[in-house]
Please model this.
Amino acid sequence: MGAVKVLLRNPRRELEVAGAMQVSTLLNRLDINRESVIVIRANTVVPGDAWLNGDDEVEIRPVISGGDFGPADREPAENGPGR
Amino acid sequence: MKCRVCREPAIIDIRRHNANFCTEHFVKLCRDQTMKAIDEFDMIAPGERVLVAVSGGKDSLAIWDILLDLGYDADGLYLGLGIGEYSDASGDCARAYARSREARLIEVDLPDDYGYDIPTGARAAKRVPCSACGLSKRHLFDKAAIDGGYDVVVTGHNLDDEAAVLFGNVIRWQTDYLGRQLPVLPARHGFPRKVKPLVRLGEREMAAYCVVKGIDYIVEECPMAAGNKHLGYKEALNAIEATSPGSKHDFYFGFLSRASAHFRPQAEGEQADLLPCTSCGAPTTAEVCAFCRLVERAGGHLPVPEPVPVELGPSRSAPATTTGAHL
Model:
């Protein structure tokens, strides 16, 4: 039985997870909230019920971005989009 | 898992819609939701000139792509922040996208044009980096729009961004900010109109949109965003969303329809006190606007040390079955 090769980002690192499994199972095993990532295989997105085989390579890409969204240091006159 | 529309294999499941979509119908969904937001909130009128604030990230490139596909006259504005390799890479993404669409990208560079970068500028001005960055962006987006004769500035703020801001404002009952948290800020007092057409779409959808459209965006998080409180708010909301899909949408749009108006009089009262900055002419509540004060304090502090990358994103404990780096 092979292992699914997994690329993680921020920071970039790789790991292997043994056995065939669904994407949702992989995320659960890695304790990753599905709302915060997309999973990419062969340059396209795959849904939670897609099956991953032992020779698959996938990227788990975080989608949360930070930045200036808050009011803490924002002057009233300058409130507005910061992105 | 099959597409709700055509029953072909789906590529994405969107739990708050209780639906799955194939590539074609997912792209259509993104366009439709954008159009719905534009129409619902009167964001952009036909024929208006649009300036898209482009960071090189997924949201700003996605909204630029959607607007161009929908036929809008949309140019991009990229602001070089001087954050080492991160700025180099994000600028490359913005330029590559503009070339691919033969679209116009205006560039402003903080170090070259204003004599400071975000890391050192923030330190010199005693602001947190995200604050100095946001202040610089808002001022320079406004200036570029006014100078260039654009009718509206578009930003890539999405549903997750707006829900996180609302969450933070409610936690601290920032009633003045609650009064201004709208998907459209109308043009007035010398500010251009600013709109957020992605408020009906989540950031997971925007990342997926870029992947399926082949848009190369900067995946790495800004190294200056370490410890940003809004990342924590987003994680908290995603934990709720995981067990109760649709919560972020209901939280934000429920606020707009049922609570926002209660806070507007206070915000509008503050807007009435604006006067031109004695240095640059931009509207401000002070004699000299915050941007000019930042330039005054931060200018001439180049160069800066290379920022150190930080770990952000889906970090959790590493499973025992894995090998390689820690998660």
Residues 9 and 43 of chain A are 15 Å apart (CA to CA). The longest strand of chain A covers residues 3-8.
